[in-house]
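To assess whether ligand presence alters the predicted conformation, the chain was also submitted together with flavin-adenine dinucleotide. Input:
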Amino acid sequence: MESPLAQDWKSNSYWLDGVRESPNLPVNPASEVDVLVVGSGFTGLNASIQTAKAGRSTMVLDALDPGLGCSTRNGGQISTSVKPSLDKLTTRFGLEKALAIRKEGETALQWISDFVEVEKIACDFKHAGRFHAAHTPKHYDEIAFSADKMRTTEGIESYVVPKSNQRQELGSDAYYGGVVFTKHSSLNPAKYHRGLLDKALSLGVHVTGNCAVQSLKKVSGGFLVSTEKGIVRARDVIVATNGYTTSLTPWLQRRVIPIGSYIIATEPLPEVLMNTLFPKDRIASDTCKVVYYYRASPDRKRILFGGRVSARETNTAISGPKLYQDLCRIFPELSSYKITHSWMGFVAYTFDELAHTGVHDGVHYAMGYCGSGVSMASYLGMRLGQKVLGLKEGQTAFDGLPQPTRPFYSGKPWFLPAAVGWYRWRDRLQCQLAASKG
Ligand SMILES: Cc1cc2nc3c(=O)[nH]c(=O)nc-3n(C[C@H](O)[C@H](O)[C@H](O)COP(=O)(O)OP(=O)(O)OC[C@H]3O[C@@H](n4cnc5c(N)ncnc54)[C@H](O)[C@@H]3O)c2cc1C
């Protein structure tokens, strides 16, 4: 079979094609700062903006070029980002705390929408709404029921779409109806990241890339931080490394599970076809356990399609064609078009499917967005900055939650291939059984 990869396909994020040249950044770190932030993604930059605004000398260091973790690689879909249901959280924490945690998701979604508007960050932000599609009739019943419950108990706006009306939301017959979450939104993550970087730089934040932080040592009055390019003294340290967390912070490394998420962009498609497939420009996801997420590019010329296509981590020359097969299962009309970009990045899952933030050994952190961090990483990063400043508003419902790990887990998820393999097999079987029943 002919490869769906275009001859000149790229293994970097599609979003990076559309951003301006990087600004000139200092090559070396400063020797002393009030606040040192490790990681230059949405979490780290949003934290740095808060501390710099309050007059604290702030430096962000990244092992890669700034933003080259997940924050310029993602699908740009914005949701409420709290995965566990109210019922599950209530069983664990009681109703009041559960409601507070769920509410943070809504707050994060609203906060990012307000933030990009107030700060005038040009990032193609759009209140697109999400079509969450059911891959079997049983899943349709389940999400319709839970959407109804979320509407009455949490005030989450949504409406149910039966299969007969599905094409009004998404031009596919592969699903059995779904739910539209009207407030979910979309943006161009690389443009958003660039806007954050520009904002941080304008506030005097020192940002240096290609400068891994190698150790953090507590000393009187703060930390002595060893980096690839010299020693830094910092009063406060924020760790914002999410799926790229290493043995720099072993306690955190034991509490996050790095998982590759893979994504492709198609070549430009005819306008008529785009209008058929994405009639309302919704972002989309489905009820598969190993979820697929996709959308039109902001110029409505391409489709960006993401998911996890193999049990083990793989390279993007292999993941691209596999994702394409799934894309064509959902939209058979795309079988004659090519893929121009295929890339991936590491997200951080947690053992309880919740993001976590707090202070450990004097180090502030926020991470574990479970693949859904555009709004939550931004919001918790912002709150983290406020916490370092000692502000009451920095507190969130995530503070003080127990943060589980597992015996013998040190940050290398040996169990992942078996778990992903099993879930993918089950998803496929459920799709086939549903299709065979018509
Ligand atoms: C393919 C893909 C699609 C996604 N799609 C979506 C989506 O549609 N919607 C959504 O909400 N979320 C999505 N996500 C998740 C989202 O991108 C992340 O949750 C979010 O970007 C996390 O931001 P962050 O700042 O915490 O981490 P990152 O942006 O990953 O930044 C962490 C940084 O820490 C740096 N670092 C690590 N260790 C060190 C060290 N020792 N010294 C210096 N620097 C260090 C890394 O180099 C990295 O740049 C997706 C992710 C991927 C990979």
